[in-house]
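Page 37, continued from 36.
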């Protein structure tokens, strides 16, 4: 059995391994195992989607199922969400929701939080639009080919119009003029042409309606983060479409200059930067109050320093934040409102590094790999052949099964992407942009679909990149592409080696603080397991547990940390809290003062 190989194999494997570490660190293994199962399901679904690249018709069926399931979720949310008990931020949307509540009976079943629904719908919308564009492209190609059948043989090139489903044309040696005209454009997508009305087939109309329902549901969630992310991605797509040559030439230098300017601005305008950032990202509603996102991120970073290597555990963030950052005895917030911080706090350093690696590897593959976006300069160079040479049975250049109408152009460079690949790439980008200010799928029951956009992008692009040879045999790349893939693999290996070598050099140079942080991490995990595993509101609160529980193992780890680094903030702070809870104020005060001098800005402590 051939093992599937994708650009994301290594980071996904590390992501799962770090999730296991998160289960080990958790004070509530039952809840953590449930989340671990959802992470495994997300990775398994990713590989199942990628495996469908060998059966494009099934891949198309999955896309349809995903979009229609998302539409069903949108309908359920819009009709069952109680807009009277949970009014939204915008009056007209709330009024429309109240009207729907009065018109449609309530079933009394569980309704997902609006942000959770938005997290699923914001990736389904670009995928649905991409699938619609793919169908329209196939229809246009088929119509263009049919209309071109009456032209003279040498008047215009003939496009071999395969659909997204990848149905190949007959062997070239067996094609005659009459058979060619009868078979060109035939595919699974084209099979429903008999059910067409004008330019719209019944399946395309149904998909359009489902995508429109998804868009309507997204509006009704009132998720400003989702709207903003979709707007940014849409604007970037328009810029790429209308200024692709300029983007290709100047994107890298302009991006580098932008990052440099932003970095300098942050360093020199730190006092003004945080209030401005807080104004941009907005506050988080919490009961009758609002919490600053920047303040929450600062608190989350302080907790990450306590559990920097292992994380605090999968799915246990609420009580970790309340107990060790806010000093509360009840859960207050469900997540850190930043995807990377949330993953780091739950899965540790390896999990955060794996996620960053995953994102970087995906976009590098999407842009730079042989299977990724490419620019063509001549219509006949790819996907187009001369009618006379085809009818004569002569060998032709590689023929794309999925050429776009833009490939027919003979003018400047043309950017070629399969529409479903573009939609999946946009969905991934929307999810990550929104993840900068919120945590939607990762901290909810929607986690299993978290890697669906990446899987669809890889499957759609690999399928689109297949070539039809004269013996009707599918090949994924020619020898030149394989050579490029080999060179890219060597570059990646060298990059991984450099990163690993740099990490080892840093560890060797700062081994005492690193070792101290490791022991402090173990102590924090041991303390959390003792205190929160026994917590029960209101009978057993953490303060009472801390006075009577045996925390000797945690204290031993903290003292090991201080022996290596006397200024370790985590060990000092935790060793101050334990005696303070027991009434030994002088000892607790001594540790607290040293920690304060070392880190006066740590909001978790002060």
């Amino acid at each position: 059995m051939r093992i599937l190989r994708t650009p994301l194999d290594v980071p996904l494997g590390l992501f799962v391994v770090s999730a296991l570490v998160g289960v080990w660190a958790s004070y509530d293994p039952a809840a953590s195992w449930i989340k671990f199962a959802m992470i495994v399901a997300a990775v398994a679904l990713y590989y199942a989607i990628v495996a469908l690249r060998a059966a494009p018709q099934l891949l198309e069926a999955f896309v349809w199922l995903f979009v229609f399931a998302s539409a069903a979720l949108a309908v359920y949310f819009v009709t069952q969400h109680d807009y009277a008990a949970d009014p939204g931020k915008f009056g007209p949307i709330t009024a429309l929701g109240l009207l729907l509540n009065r018109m449609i009976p309530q079933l009394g079943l569980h309704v997902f939080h609006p942000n959770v629904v938005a997290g699923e719908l914001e990736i389904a919308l670009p995928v649905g639009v991409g699938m619609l564009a793919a169908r329209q492209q196939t229809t246009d190609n088929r119509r263009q080919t049919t209309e071109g059948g009456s032209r003279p043989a040498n008047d215009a090139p003939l496009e071999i119009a395969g659909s997204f489903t990848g149905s190949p044309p007959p062997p070239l040696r067996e094609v005659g003029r009459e058979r060619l005209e009868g078979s060109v454009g035939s595919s699974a997508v084209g099979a429903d042409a008999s059910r067409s009305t004008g330019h719209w087939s019944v399946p395309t109309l149904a998909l359009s309606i489902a995508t429109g329902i998804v868009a309507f549901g997204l509006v009704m969630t009132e998720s400003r983060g989702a709207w903003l992310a979709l707007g940014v991605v849409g604007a970037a797509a328009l810029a790429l479409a209308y200024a692709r040559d300029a983007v290709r030439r100047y994107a890298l230098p302009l991006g580098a200059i932008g990052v440099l300017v932003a970095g300098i601005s942050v360093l020199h305008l730190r006092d003004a930067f945080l209030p401005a950032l807080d104004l941009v990202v907005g506050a988080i509603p919490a009961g009758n109050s609002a919490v600053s996102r920047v303040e929450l991120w600062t608190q989350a970073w302080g907790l990450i320093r306590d559990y920097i290597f292992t994380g605090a555990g999968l799915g246990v963030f609420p009580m970790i934040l309340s107990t060790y950052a806010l000093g509360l005895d009840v859960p207050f917030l469900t997540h850190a409102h930043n995807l990377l911080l949330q993953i780091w706090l739950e899965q540790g350093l390896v999990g955060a590094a794996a996620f960053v690696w995953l994102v970087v590897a995906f976009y590098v593959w999407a842009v730079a790999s042989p299977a990724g976006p490419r620019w063509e300069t001549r219509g006949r160079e790819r996907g187009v052949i001369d009618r006379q040479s085809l009818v004569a049975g002569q060998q032709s250049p590689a023929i794309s099964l999925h050429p776009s109408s833009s490939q027919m152009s003979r003018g400047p460079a043309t950017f070629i992407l399969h529409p479903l690949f573009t939609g999946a790439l946009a969905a991934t980008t929307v999810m990550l942009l929104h993840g900068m200010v919120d945590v939607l799928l990762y901290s909810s029951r929607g986690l299993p679909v978290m890697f669906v956009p990446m899987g669809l992008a890889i499957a759609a692009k690999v399928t689109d990149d297949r070539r039809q040879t004269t013996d009707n045999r599918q090949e994924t790349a020619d020898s030149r592409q394989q050579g490029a893939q080999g060179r890219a693999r060597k570059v990646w290996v060298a990059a991984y080696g450099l990163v690993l070598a740099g990490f080892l050099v840093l560890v060797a140079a700062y081994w005492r603080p690193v070792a101290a942080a490791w022991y402090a991490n173990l102590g924090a995990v041991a303390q959390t397991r003792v205190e929160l595993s026994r917590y029960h509101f209101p009978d057993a609160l953490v303060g009472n547990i801390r006075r009577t529980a045996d925390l000797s193992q945690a204290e031993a780890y903290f003292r090991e940390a201080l022996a290596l680094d006397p200024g370790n903030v985590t060990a000092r702070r935790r060793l101050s809290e334990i005696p303070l809870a027991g009434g030994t104020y002088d000892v607790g005060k001594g540790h607290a003062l040293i920690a304060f001098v070392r880190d006066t800005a740590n909001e978790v402590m002060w």
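Confidence is low (pLDDT under 50) at residues 150-198, 370-416, 467-478. Flag for discussion at group meeting. The radius of gyration is 28 Å.
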